[in-house]
Write a structure and sequence with these properties.
Length: 360
């Protein structure tokens, strides 16, 4: 059945005009909610929607919820870029985007309900909100909704996130494969996503039979800033005292934390990567820090918005589809801040090797 016949058949079954059906299937804004419901229901019943999944988005208004700092590039570059990705993904559709700030935890449930109950809110994207009550309200309202960089623990909503646990595991594994067995993890654990990354790091240690000692292998901060990271690492190194006990590599939880780590090392007379290697996991993708090209695992950022819109389209076309959690992989950028070292070799206590056994 070609496109023209599809429109004619839907028009015949719904009693709507061909022009109305055409506008609905094209995602045009000048259509009523009742008309859209009739057209989509008919198309789904006749198996026509399968070919429309890459077409126009079947709605006109989307509400974006995020922490207030996400709307200012100076306070949260990562989420600001995620929102830009959403805007870019919706640029080809006639969709109006509205925004609402919510706290990550203990969010304003009344405000959320007010915005979601607005007839203009046909679908929602929720970015970085960990409040399970908000997730529950969103699921109960039965409007298309996709979470970004957060997870619905009740498994009722679609979500897309970086695969934080695998990114942490991969990053630590990379350093271990470069010969580093004493790695200091400089991490901010203020969100569950960062806890997942640390869980992946622990898993990498376990895979290589390295005991994870928080006193030797972990320094935490309350934020991702360079100054706090510099201060935390300086305090740690001064407490260690002997340079022979220092780590051979630092795995930072962000590029700006890596900046702070390099500053601290330089002020203490340590060179990167000659004395200590530095690696980052982040989405900011700083190419260099203090003239040292930074090896890092790039966390998906701009891609989150596009994939969220794809999930939203899937939910619009297949309302009965099981909710899914899409995890995006990171990408390794090998530069010059990590030095490959030879693993320490231990001499056997007793040697039975004697070259004379093989003399002829």
């Amino acid at each position: 059945m070609n496109g023209k016949l599809k429109i004619q058949e839907i028009a015949r079954q719904t009693g709507l005009s061909i022009s109305t059906v055409s506008r609905v299937l094209a995602g045009k804004a000048n259509t009523s909610a009742e008309a859209r419901h009739k057209v989509l229901a008919c198309a789904q019943q006749n198996g026509i929607l399968q070919g429309l999944s890459n077409g126009r988005l079947m709605l006109n208004n989307v509400m974006v919820f995020a922490p207030q700092r996400a709307f200012d590039v100076r306070t949260d570059i990562f989420y600001h870029k995620v929102i830009q990705g959403i805007t870019a993904a919706l640029a080809e559709h006639e969709v109006r985007i509205r925004y609402c700030g919510l706290e990550e935890q203990h969010s304003d449930g009344a405000l959320f309900l007010e915005k979601m109950s607005d007839p203009q809110t046909e679908a929602a994207l929720i970015i970085g909100i960990d409040d399970e009550h908000i997730h529950q309200l969103a699921a109960d309202l039965h409007k298309p909704c996709v979470l970004i960089n957060c997870t619905d623990r009740q498994m009722r909503l679609d979500s897309v996130s970086p695969d934080h646990q695998l990114i942490g595991e991969f990053s630590a594994n990379y350093l271990i494969q470069q010969g580093h067995s004493h790695i200091l993890n400089l991490q901010c654990l203020r969100r569950h996503t960062m806890e997942l990354r640390l869980a992946g790091i622990r898993q990498a240690y376990a895979q290589h039979n390295i005991a994870f000692d928080e006193g030797r292998h972990l320094v935490t901060t309350s934020g991702f800033g360079s100054e706090e990271a510099e201060q935390a690492l300086t305090t740690f190194i001064n407490q260690v005292g002997q340079r022979s006990q220092l780590p051979t590599a630092i795995l930072a939880g962000g590029d700006y934390m890596a900046v702070g780590a390099v500053k601290a090392l330089n002020k203490l007379g340590l060179n990167v990567p000659t004395d200590i290697s530095v690696m980052s996991t982040d989405g900011f993708n700083l190419a260099e820090i203090h003239d040292v090209p930074l090896t890092s695992v790039h966390v998906p950022r701009d891609e989150l918005g596009h994939e969220a819109i794809q999930l939203l389209q899937r939910r619009m076309l297949r309302a009965d589809a099981p909710p899914c959690n899409l995890l995006l992989h990171g990408k390794l950028a090998v530069r010059a801040s990590v030095k490959r070292i030879s693993p320490h070799k231990t001499s056997p206590a007793v040697s039975t090797h004697d070259h004379r056994l093989y003399d002829v």
